[in-house]
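Deviation from plan, reported transparently: 2-acetamido-2-deoxy-beta-D-glucopyranose complex.
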Amino acid sequence: MNSCQVIFFAVVLLCEVLQLSRARDDVNFDVNYNITWGKDHVLSLNQGRQVQLSMDIQSGAGFGSKLSYGSGFFHLRIKLPGKDSAGVVTAYYLTSTTINHDELDFEFLGNREGKPITLQTNVFVNGQGNREQRFRFWFDPTADFHTYKILWNQHHVVFYVDEIPIRIFKNNTNIGVSYPTQPMQIVASLWDGDSWATDGGQTKTNWSHAPFKAHFQGFNVNGCPLDIQNSLNILVQQQCYSSNYWWNDRKFWKLDKIQQKAYQQVRQKYMNYDYCSDRSRHPNIPPECK
Ligand SMILES: *[C@@H]1O[C@H](CO)[C@@H](O)[C@H](O)[C@H]1NC(C)=O
Ligand SMILES: *[C@@H]1O[C@H](CO)[C@@H](O)[C@H](O)[C@H]1NC(C)=O
Ligand SMILES: *[C@@H]1O[C@H](CO)[C@@H](O)[C@H](O)[C@H]1NC(C)=O
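Because the crystal trials were delayed, the predicted structure below was used instead.
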């Protein structure tokens, strides 16, 4: 290990410790979330501090936040299905309920036992996506809970794995790139994606390993709640950028030096697909990639 790597891992360790102390803020699932489908495939554990979704050939399951949000620093702690999870998709995302929707995605694409699980991220604005970036993991995401976070304020959207920023989508409206503005709901689900998820759909779900189980914790929400009825009211959205919300504070406008370094290292080592450099899908470099 060189000294940069030592610092990198020391920071990660420190952040895990902080994470543990923060986990006490957990609230019961029912406070902020509802089961949205597959009710009989959902199990509440530890007085509602933990929820298990399972998937078999009959059904998967999902849950969503009761409210929509106009900004926030969202998080869930997730432990992914273990062993052979090829074809199985665990999803955690923010999405608006509109036709031309905004959406910020974490998708965990299962794999055969011993083969790497993929972390796919995507960003949709006004219904336009095709912005996938994919990563390998630097730990076993099926062995333990890890925190997956999305910061969304007026300045940028940042995806985090634990305390490491892995992706930034900047507010580039000044160069004509659309930026999410619509109130979004928090959603998580476990479903069969074997038509596309693993090796482009060639590796199928092995149902003899069902039920597949994903576990979730961390049901407190740091978000600016909005009334969905007012979803197109720009004035309401502006309130969500108020400095009364801590994630709008100057220190969340851009990464600090240490975060920047961790961001660069993780992308260099673990990102294995980037739409920005896929000239067959995007012959012209998307403006936000320049
Ligand atoms: C969530 O569940 C509660 C009680 O079960 C219900 O009153 C409410 O309408 C549900 N909300 C949504 C958005 O489904
Ligand atoms: C993007 O940033 C501009 C300032 O550069 C700001 O006026 C605008 O409100 C931001 N857009 C969104 C959707 O947050
Ligand atoms: C599915 O899993 C079973 C039990 O482990 C195994 O015997 C079988 O070969 C697997 N099928 C495929 C297609 O991998």
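The first strand starts at residue 33 and ends at 37. We consider this an acceptable substitute for the interim report.
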